[in-house]
Amino acid sequence: MRERPLFVCVLLLLVGWPMREAQACPFCGPPQTRLSERLSKNDVTVIAEFLETTPGKNGIGGNARFRTIERLRGPEGKLTFLKGDSIVLPRELNGVRGQRCLLFGRKEDEITWESPVPLSDEAERYLRKFPATDDPVTKRLEYFVEHLESADALIAMDSMAEFAVVPYSEVTTLAAKLPREKLRIWLTDEQTIPQRLGLYGMMLGLCGTAEDAEFLRSMIESPKSEFPLGLDGITFGYLLLT
């Protein structure tokens, strides 16, 4: 039974090591749109609360009204949104009055708004403590690694998306800050999204011990399925420790 994982290790060693020069995290899956990216690319970003929706006729038209709580980004002048200002989206939306949302808009003749992003209290705190885009990469990753397994889906997905665009060489600078014990828990937790296992395996390889090498080897030798997701990153993490 040991021949199979050793073969996998040798194969990955031969063809996978160049991944350390990859332009994005090699074990994170396809990059998703990040909140920081949307904040920088849109002209206007506000936190607003949902007030009401006006239905259209025969499923056509309608609008949804929001009240501005805070402008996070936007131009000065007639398109400035201040606290209490009304925002109307030209489409019918379902919502609960008072629900806070993040609204992104592009400046044209007027503002063209994207679909609102509902914000929990936790997500709003996460957003307000965001590291600046020009902060050192290590500082940014220190923040996002703390939220990878947040109970709030928006936060967890966004934190993962931030790692997905970072080269392996940048992730290595975070080694001393990685949560070794949490990584072991996440790797064995059935609630962990399978697509994350490769990243977590690689991270454990960066910060782990000889004991963790055996832990990763056991995962390689006894996968939970015939075609386990994340085996590449787990094997890579094992190689880093051996």
Kindly describe this structure.
This protein has ten helices and six strands, in the order H-H-E-E-E-E-E-E-H-H-H-H-H-H-H-H. 40% of the residues lie in helices and 19% in strands. The chain has helices at residues 3-15, 35-41, 121-128, 137-145, 153-164, 168-172, 180-188, 197-207, 210-221, 231-240; strands spanning 44-57, 60-73, 86-89, 100-107, 111-113, 117-118. It folds into two domains: 3-36 and 123-240, no CATH class; 43-119, OB fold (Dihydrolipoamide Acetyltransferase, E2P). Strand 4 (100-107) and strand 5 form a beta hairpin. The model has no long low-confidence stretch (mean pLDDT 87). Strands 1, 2, 3, 4, 5 and 6 form a six-stranded antiparallel sheet that branches. By secondary structure, the protein is of the alpha+beta class.
Helix content: 25-40%
What Rg is obtained from the alpha carbons, in whole angstroms?
A: 22 Å
What's the helix count?
Answer: 10
**Unreliable segments of 5+ consecutive residues:** none
Q: Choose one word for the global shape.
A: elongated
What fraction strand? Answer: 15-25%
Q: Structural class, please?
A: alpha+beta
Any idea how many domains? 2
Query: N-to-C SSE series?
Result: HHEEEEEEHHHHHHHH
Beta strands, count: 6
Query: Average pLDDT value?
Result: 87
The largest β sheet comes out as: 6 strands, antiparallel
Compute the separation of the termini in Å. 19 Å
